[in-house]
Amino acid sequence: MSPPSSKRQRVESEDNVSREGDQLSENDVGILSYVSIEQRGFSGSLKGRWEDFVVHELESPNHICKLTSIVPIDRENGISNAHETPEDMILPIEIDEVLKEIERETMFEASFPASNDKSERERFHKAIRHNYPSLISRTVDVDNNRFVIVTKASSAKGQKGWERVSKVYDPPKETPYCHFTLYKEGKDTMNALHIIGRMLKINSNTFSYAGTKDKRAITTQRVSVKNISSKRLASLNPRLNGIKVGNFKYLPYSIALGDLYGNRFSVAIRDVVADDSIIHRAIAEWQKQGFINYFGLQRFGHSAQAQTFAIGKQV
User: Fold this and answer.
1) Is residue 74 flagged as an active site residue?
2) TRUD domain: from which residue to which, for each copy (predicted)?
């Protein structure tokens, strides 16, 4: 009986590359046998989820790149300013929610009743600057009543919000490169940096990194950028989706392509079809002999139309 027409059939293309639909198989790219000829091997699903494939860059054999802090650093001593917010810098929840909307640019400006006490007004302005460096506030008098008007800094006289951030966070002249850890999920390195560059209003080519990390994975790697403060980078974290930056450090040089010791992979294989005894023997062989770092078709691509592996053979 022939299979239902709704199911894709395995066919042979004109160039003798077999495929199911447009997907390559291991045989198509020359993956024909196991390292140990005595093992039967087993099948399973790889990279079914982002968390199934975790890649940490290795800066040295004992230094694994991980995101452990998203706090900006001080330019003078290179330490993070992770102190707790002083009590007089904490804004009421209802005001804080409105200021968040202005920062996201879903609101143009907002006004709040101002105290007649000058010192209280100054504390209010200071709290706004402390919690929202990209916003500006001013006191106005309307019909003998005082109000505090808050708006986005970029909306006032062409001033950019990040220009108002304290100079204490700017990169020192002798160490102008800000190195940071890039954590990402479901995005390749270039795409993640394009998003960050667009938010900073700089070209993504400004960033330097040792190598591109997988898209369908959770990865961490070091990135460098010149004359961008850790404060500006850290301020993006609340608005980034599937991306985080942190572990900042100012250095006199940028990262170059290949500036890494290697990568550490944590791989989960799902939907395994094999007896436990076969799996245990296979693991024992991995530990004894190692294995070829193919990870299936990762090194060759999955498209039967592109056939990048054929181009590689010719090169």
Assistant:
1) no
2) 290-315
